[in-house]
Design goal:
Blueprint (H helix, E strand, L loop, with lengths): L2 H40 L21 E13 L11 E8 L6 E5 L1 H5 L8 E6 L12 E6 L2 H19 L1 H26 L4 H21 L3 H27 L8 H9 L5 H12 L1 H21 L5 H30 L1 H9 L4 H5 L2 H35 L16
Antiparallel strand pairs: 1-2, 1-4, 2-3, 4-5
Length: about 400
Amino acid sequence: MGQSGQRQDMVRQRAARRRAGILLSAVLVPIGVVAVLLMVLLWPSGKTADISLGSPYAAAPGASIDTGKVQRTAQEDCPGSAVGSKDCLIAYSQPDAGGDVVPVMISPEIAKSPGVHQGDTIKYVNLSKLGPNPNGPAYVFMDFVRSAPMLLLALVYAVVVIAVARWRGLRALLGLVGAYLVMAFFILPGLVEGKPPLLLALVGSAVIMFGVLYFAHGVSARTSTALIGTLFGLGMTAGIAAWATHATYLTGLADHNTYQLQSVAGNLSISGMIMCGLIISGLGVLNDVTITQSSAVWELYELAPQSSARNLFASAMRIGRDHIASTVYTIAFAYAGSALPILIMVMLYRLPVFDALSSAELAEEIVRTLVGSVGLVLAIPVTTAVAVLVVKATGRKRLAPADAPVPLAS
């Protein structure tokens, strides 16, 4: 090919990239504008400031919540019990505020597992200021102080992400902070105020995905393609979640926290909250599969730029099918690992298998898993098809010998 032919080919490729960019913008810009406008219209009024729950971590008037480091533990008589019973674990702790070592009574559940040991930092209710109480303990265990290990774990996570992914990893962490801000200041207050839960979840999730994907991965045709697939999967998930919430009668009444919410937030729709949760819970995995699938198409094209669109789609879908299979296990095991107490309880009920799976304790999480899985599975072929169309229009073709074999044949 002569220089004139190469220049013409470059001109055609630039024109194709412009057309693809215009097409992607024509799809995404209106969606983004509508999402932002709806977010402004649905923005909470701030009335949730008048709604509050009694904190389980608050002390009664005259009492205080102190922290201290355990110096030693001993099995001793429980306050108010018969002499010589020695049924209670007492943790002698040095208050962080200073003063003498105090005997903190440990509840039987904590004493059994995980137990309290020398060197642990604990939080306890100080009742000594209420006056002498011979029938009860003056210091009662409340919780462990776990701030330091949690901060250390978060720091290790951030360091590992940044060390491996570098600047992109840092941007992903900052995008995660932005996503939580949308949750904290838009979605959660909106639910409490009685805003439409389906619309609230769709708008909030769309804004999160626009911000997270473009901030973490940069503005490019590859990212835009993944975003289109993500928004498609989000729409499918929302539609299925709206149907499944009502069809399976998800009331949320198996959770005692629901009763507290109903008593203080009369405008909050419990079924709407569950539906919103079904949509939001699948965002992370949905984002994962679409950006991975989009990147796979681009990488395959870089390796074999002469491959046809059909062969490129078939090769990318082979990767997508493997991703689908592994993701199904990921979602299922993630729930199973976090719900072991509920699973054990249901097992001890000795119910038939189907009755156990459809019980109030398990139904919500099973529906959540199925709804999220359907959305992400449908998003993969859509993302792949869009990515193939865009990459064939925007990618730079490498010069290859005329007799070079066409790779990636199915």
